[in-house]
Structure formats: structure tokens, C-alpha cells
Amino acid sequence: MKKLRVGMLGLGTVGKSVAEILIQNQSWIAGRAGASIQIVRALVRQTRKRREGAASKIPTTTNAQDILDADDIDIVIEVMGGHEPAYGYITQALKRGKAVVTANKAVLAAHGLEIAKVVQQHHAAIYYEAAVAGGVPIIRTLRHSLISDRIQRIRGILNGTTNFILGLMEKGEGYDTALRQAQKEGYAEADPTLDISGADARDKLAILIQLAFGLDVHPSEIPTEGIGSLTPEVLADARQLGYRVKLLAIAKRVGNKLEARVQPAFVPFEHHLSAVLDIENAISVDSEALGTTLYVGPGAGGMPTASAVISDLIEAAQQQGVKNAMSLRSQRTALKLAKPEAAISAFYVRFLVEDRPGVLAAITRILASNNVSLAAVLQHERGLDDEPVALVILTHPTTHGAMSKALNKIKQLPILHGGLSVVPIEEQRVTKVES
Amino acid sequence: MKKLRVGMLGLGTVGKSVAEILIQNQSWIAGRAGASIQIVRALVRQTRKRREGAASKIPTTTNAQDILDADDIDIVIEVMGGHEPAYGYITQALKRGKAVVTANKAVLAAHGLEIAKVVQQHHAAIYYEAAVAGGVPIIRTLRHSLISDRIQRIRGILNGTTNFILGLMEKGEGYDTALRQAQKEGYAEADPTLDISGADARDKLAILIQLAFGLDVHPSEIPTEGIGSLTPEVLADARQLGYRVKLLAIAKRVGNKLEARVQPAFVPFEHHLSAVLDIENAISVDSEALGTTLYVGPGAGGMPTASAVISDLIEAAQQQGVKNAMSLRSQRTALKLAKPEAAISAFYVRFLVEDRPGVLAAITRILASNNVSLAAVLQHERGLDDEPVALVILTHPTTHGAMSKALNKIKQLPILHGGLSVVPIEEQRVTKVES
Fold first, then answer.
1. Cβ–Cβ gap B318/A322 under 8 Å
2. What is the structure's pLDDT at A327?
């Protein structure tokens, strides 16, 4: 039987799980891969560190060249994460003709184009199922099952941490309490900025866009809004109106333009994406021939991610010798990124205003003069004397640009008492709003 | 560029869509497949029939051997459907070393074992993504992404027609009206028996079991109950209790046994499978490393099915020369089919009974003596004098065997006025029943 020798870059949570699956299911995986797979050595920070289980049997090194330059290694698994030195290592391995399996979304999102060039020039192969939505096989599905189809839209819940936090906030928890709970459960890092700001979801969206639409988009080009400004009041309003708030990563073909953004949005209860709870991830794909398909599963965690890495490894083994395998992008298109202002949504807007006559008129006048028309107005119960009250407005679909212009003017009104929340409505409910 | 010559068996709805996609996207598909793909000829019933669009450009024959024996054909696409002669044709093509792409669930379900042997003996290759759940890429996902994982359970909504009918019944339509509506929309055949009886879902489940659990199961071994006995009252009760009724195909590993069945079941609103509406199909897979993943999409229709056929065709092209490709089963296991009576569920039971004292006591006594304990009892409003009333019982989890014994005894009670409905509850709601 053919032998495949694997070098690992990193032996953390994911790395250990990879080692465990590989060693525990050796003969079984060999049968499927058509080759016996052996981990030759792993790059670690400290060779002396005591390791448990399968990972303890793997020879370690602190010198990356022992993996990248080694003649006895065919495939490199990169599970160290972060931009550098991971990016350099991946490039080196590809240039030396090794197949690379990586879970590194940051590197792929920022350097997809450069890596694709290296893959092509060196007839190399790269696999990255684990980089987007962990255990959800979206990369393989886009590459294989949707290969003959023309993709129109992708909408994803690509960050489990924020989805978990939003779930708690929907039940009335404040943002800070919800975040602490996520940290306690191990779902959020000590520094949760990448998750909360939407940057993590944005990186994954960039990878999906490169693959599904053949567009070289850098993550920094994708307008991104995190969940930091959402309040329990907004989530309660959403619930009352029949929606959940989800942090959506959206890419949508409009003519020869591609709209792309990461932003919290209202999703109706009846929609599949609304049923994605806790740390689950989900991707909904609209394509020409197939219609709408949905993929849901665990977005993170050692075992799900490791499972994705192993499936890549087996495919790499099966395709040994196949050149340019699993390239990072579909065939190039003439698509260009659309201007963010041109995107069209209905909106939910929540104002905290003085409770006196003329307030609503002032606001609606500004909205109307910017071509934003109202679908519904809800005034929350009055507070005590002189307390500001919440005014909730649902608009008809309008451009994000028009909405933003109108809001800038409204913000200057003296009747506004802060607390302005604006959330696009991703899909409007068919049923009537109950007021 | 390498050339791949395709012969088609059948040129109906799916066949025409395949031809259309292939011809319209020729160069694009060639780029992905690494080969130019050409339809050489198609087997049809009448060569003289007038055909429109892409299909009109394909040379036709009424002699199957012009495809199966032809030296100028590398790949055979079987989209004629039905058991025979399709089964014989598939086998002949494989024996002659041609790769076969098929959408034929009936043949694969009934003859999976024999076909797998032919594939192995003749180092052939067969691809059948389109045979299960149309456009949902479940076969490829099981073969590639879940390849390293141990699958514990599969639950699917595998028949769009029945799902559509149940949706209408949930809104209060009677079974007959709902069926006629499905026929009018083109979702149900003139003879809808295969859908309604659960046989179609059962065939697909058999294919999934062969692939995911490595168990040679014949469709006839899978206990199957259709939707014919469901009434709008049952669906209304379900809705009131927070459930939808779905025709579920279930396969579940319990120790070294595999439970398998097709049966209507209560699914809580909060569950993803409950959000599968209209003619959508969905498959939920529980596996050891990955956890729960869900795949949803169009289960039928010319274009979705054709899209699955094309993705297979491209994979066949990429794997030309790879032997035993896409075999029909995972590695063999020691699993055996479990006795249907041993399956465990909570149950919903609806009785039509005489409205007099002692009725509930008589029923609960029989249930208790068969180890079926009650979770809730709901009595519907009284009717007119002497009219029988509906009694709804929810049980705690019990074996299907115990439930069935108890019901057989209850059926003999003179107080029962027909109208007995029994539906297992696939997952109990966490929240309390509102009575």
C-alpha cells in the first residue's frame, strides 16, 4: 500500500484531535485514502512540553525547516493559525511540491490570490475545508457539488461566538453578561475582538467569495459591522415582530456587481437561518440550477475542525499526483465589488426620542426627503414624565446609502436622545406585523 | 484537451436538463472537468419524436446496445428510471468498463449489493448523487466529508411530495384536497402510491444506509408507514402542542444494531427538520467527530436533479482511471438490522371515544399494564349528546413493541369509535405543554 507521510505545523487543540483521529482509525482511514498515512513529525514551540494521548507519540521539532524542507514528508497540515509565520510556511511547503491542508482562515482570506498563484505555478495542491465554518462541508460542496452551477447568493452565519451571544441577548441578557457567559463556556477568547467585530466572519466570507464568485476580494474591502452596538431592546423588538437578529455574512450577485457585507440583520422566524442556534454555523446558497441549499453544523471546536482536516487529508491522498487540485477560486469572472451604498434592504430603526408632538413628523419628513418610506411605526409605552420614549420604525426597502443619509440628518435633531439602532431586515415576513 | 464521450439512457425531463446544462456551459464545464464532454447519443423510445432545445441536437437510438456496446462512449448517464431494463443496462455498462452516472434510486436501493460487486470485479465506477434528495449533495458529503467519521444517526425528509401535502394539511386541508393540489402543481404523479406509501423515501433510506453504515439492507426490510392515515385533526393537535408532523426516514446505530424505519413523526417547531417546508428535502446526520450537520435543498425537479448529475459527471471525468471509484458502501460493519419492536419513542395517540366516565381509566389501565406511561392527557371539547369525543394522550418514551401491544388491546374496547391515530414523537419539546 502507498505510504503518505505527514508533517504537522502546530499541535494545539485541533492538531491533537487530528493526531487522535488519525492514530485511532489508522487502518480504516488507510482503506478510504488508498494509502497508509503516518504523522512523521510536528512543529511545536516547546519540544519538552508534556503531551497526552496520541499527540505524545509524535516526534516534535522547533525548527520549521524540519517539516518544510524534509524529503520524508509529502503532505503538510497547518493548524498553527495566525498570519505569520503560517503564511510563509504554507507558501514554502507549496513551492517544495508538498500538498498543504490548512485550517487557517486569516491567511487564506488575506493572501488567497498569492497562494492561488503559487499553487498554479508549482502545480501544487491546497485543501482548506476546515478554514470556513469548521465541520460544515461548504468548501467541498462549492468545489464539487455546485461546480457546474452559477451561484447567485451566499448568506452565512459564520461565527458561532456571536450567534451564541445573540441567543442569550434574545433571552434578555445584556451584552456584557452574554459575552462573559460565552467566555466561560470556552466559546469566546479572552480578547473577543475578532469575533465581536465581525472580522472573523468577514475573513470566512472573503474565502467563500473567492471560491464561489471567482472574485479577488480582500477582507478589508468588505463592509463589516459587528454585534457590539446591539441591545437587548433591539432583540426584544425583533422577537415581537417575528424576527431573530443574526450576524449575517452576505455575498450577492447583482448584474455584474457583487454585493458583500457582514452585518447584523433581522431574519424571520420561518427562515432556516433563524433556526441556527448557539454556536452552530450555517450557509445558505442560492444557485441557478440547484436553487437554494442549506448547510448547517458545528462551526468550531477541536473535533469538528479536525474532522474537516482529515477529510481534506484523505482527499489529498486520493488526489496525489493530481495537479492544481482544489484551487482557491472558481474560474475568473468579470464581477466587481458593488458600492456598499447601493445595497437594498428594508430597515428596522429604533430611536430614543422626546415624548412630545411633532417628533414623528420631524423624523418622517427627513426619511421621506431621502426616499425612505415607512412600512410601520411602533411607539413603545410612555415612560415617566419627561422620560424619552422608544420609537420603532420599519421601512420599505431602500438603499443603504439613502438610509445612511437620512440617519445622519436625523441624528442632528435635538429631539433625539441617543440610543439609535439600525438593523437591515434581510427578508421581510410575509405575514402581517402584529402591533 | 482530453475528450469524454457520453451516452445517455433516457431523454426525459432530467435528461433534457442535463443536455441543456452540458451544451450551454460547454467550455466552462470542460475547464472544471479537465476534459471536453460531448453527448454522443441518447437511447429513447421514439427517435422520431420532436424534441426542443439542446435535446434536439443529440443523435438518438432505440437500441440500447448502440450505447452499451459502443466503443465511442466512455461514460453512461442513466436517467430513464424504473427497475428494468435500467438495472440490466447499468450492469452491462459497468461490465464493459464504462463509468456510470445514475439518478435511479429504485435500482440502487434494490440491487445495491449486486451493483457494488460488479463495480469491484470490473474495476468500474458508479456515481449516484442525483438518486437521493435530488439537489442536496448528501451522497458526496457522506463519501468525502464524513469519510473519516463514524455516523451514529441519519434522519431525513426524503420525499418532497408528502412534505408538501403535510404542509397543506397542517393548514387544515383534507388529505384528498392536499393530494389533488400536489398533483396540480406537478409535485405528485397521477399514481402517487410510491410517494404516499413511503416507498420512495424508504428506497432512498436504503441507499443512505448502505453508504453510511455499510449494511446491506433491502428496502423491503425497512418498516415503512406512509402518510395516508394522517388526518387534519392530528396535524392540528401537533401544531397546538408545538410540533409539526414530518414523514421521517430514520437510521440509528444502537449498540451493534441499526434501527431503520420510515414513518410520520412529531418534530418540535424548534428543530431544523421542522422548518423544512413545501417540496424541500433535508438530511440531518449525527456523527462522532463532527456532531450534527444538516443538509437542505430541493429534493426533485429537472434542473436540481440534472445539476447533481452534472456534478457527478465532472467528478467521473476528473477520476477517469481511478478504479472502484465512488463505491456504493462504506467499509463493511458487523451491524445488524434491529427488530422494529425494540425502537423507543414517546408517542402521540388520538382516540375517538364514548364520552362517559371510566373511558380514560380503561385506556390507561391497558397502557400501564404494557409499560406505557402517560406524560399528558388532553380531552377535546365535548360534542353534542352521545357524540364521541377526541381523547389525546402523550406517552413517555416506550418501545414501539409495547405501544403496539397496548393499542391492539385498546382497539378491542367497545368504547372506541374508530379514528385511532398513533404518531411517534421524534424529539420531545423541552418546554412545557400548554394545555
1. yes
2. 54
